[in-house]
Amino acid sequence: MTPRERVTRALNHQEPDRIPIDLGATIVSSIVKQSYIELKQYLGLPLEEIKILDYVQQLPYMDEALLQRFGVDFRPVQSPAATAPGLAIFEEGDYYAFIDRWGAKLHMPKRGGLYFDWVEFPIKEATMAALDSYHWPRPDPPEYIAQLRAQAKYLYENTDYALVGSAVIGGGIFEQPARVMGMENFLMALVSEPVFADRLMEQITDIYIESCNNYLDQIGQYIQVFVYYDDLHTQTGWMIAPDLYRKMVKPKQRRLVEAIKKKTDAKLFFHACGATYDLIPDLLDLGFGILNPVQVSARGMDTQKLKQEFGKDIVFWGGGVDTQRVLPFGTPQQVAEEVKRRIDDLAPGGGFVFAAVHNIQALVPPQNIVTAFDTARQYGQYNK
Amino acid sequence: MNPIVQAIFTGVLEGNAELVRQKVPEALATGVAPATILNKGMIAAMAEVGRLFEAGEYFVPEMLIAARAMKTGTEILKPHLQEAQVRSAGKVVIGTVKGDLHDIGKNLVGMMLEGAGFEIHDLGTDVPPEKFVEAVRTSGANVVGLSALLTTTMPGMKTIIEALAQAGLRHRVKVIVGGAPLTDAYARQIGADGYAPDASRAVALTKSLLA
Asked: Which chain B residues are closer than 8 Å to A113 by Cβ?
């Protein structure tokens, strides 16, 4: 069975020969630079020059040898989300800094820093005047999309991998406003300046639709999965009232999904961290078929219960191994037990893609990573 | 309850900063004691906000606008409280540990503690251990709140607790910890005095540690 056939079966809720495996198909199922280097050294793979795909999270482009070593069934065809091509990184005191394509400034500590985080925001006030004078970003230029198309076409015609795309050039419709005005200011505006918040999210949606249309017109025919991200939850539940989500945010997500569905048959992937159990009916209603990262350590994210209640309707992509406790701090044996437990819960009947919960962070023992992926590949055979 | 104080309570509870801005001077002008405005109007309202949050009726935005309304009131009230020699419930030094730039969780804890009448010294994000030590030494704080979002920065909490011990300050303060990867077990393991899973419960924890 080829990887693409395997993935197609799994995404259609049928059992393939083994569980499909993901590492690095998305910027939420990858591995940070530091752990990537240590992992390659541990496996004795040659260290080529590291190229960064996602600057914010410090995620490298994956080396083909590593993907083959783990039996990864996917290849990404995507532009970096937060950063426009040709990004300049500069120094500012104790920090590395850059300005993202939305005009926000990010910092990463020079010493011990592992990520960039947003520290300055272009929209200072929750007013219509601030939106009028805001310099909105543009989608990727056509020549950049043409490069991605060439890559997608090549991979589609010359390899058997399942292809994963995205063209959301920022955080989600709920998340991105926080990155242009600060999270606290946006959350307050949602309830105290709803007209402003509504327009901000509508304009972000407009940009995403334009960006997705440009991408999908060229690449939609080649990809099997299309990725969208929107973190709406904390580890214990909704960050905002569910009624407020359904009134203010969900209609915009629906507008985006409807635009995407006109351009591709790819299965739609929704990434949302935290306690997302109560969100699943909304995702199904919107037309998403895949939930990621299935944060098993968050409240209510019991994999057995999730599979029982929603396993026929939604594909679980992630949840393969807890990345908050087990993967960084457990023994290899505990990692193997955790992976087997999650496979027992999530794999029956298909509808499961093995990936760690979110990106593998720094300071994770390489032996644990290898154990996780090797266990998934061996224990994840359907005809054992 | 005095109707003006009642209006201040409602203003904070509903996040109506404008109402609080109007009513606090009105209450002062009619001779309501500053401590009454603070305790019965604002701190009581923030306690109700915490209760509604824990009950799943309030979410982060409602908590934020309530804290903003309270801040509007305390800024007006501050000189009057000083004059009346009203003391805070305690001094808390908070910050996100070295290498970590995340601040929303820490800010929410700071707001809710402030809402409960504590005085907050917020050191910001990416704070090195020596800055925590220095802040405890100079502020006379009785609580230190440490925040970390990441599995990679969380071990820095232990370093801070050790630095406080080395500086001979550990016995003077209670150390509370919070953040996405934290657990009660981890808090105990690194020698912290307590862990809370959210901002509202951080208030209850702090009060119980100082009781």
From this structure: 99
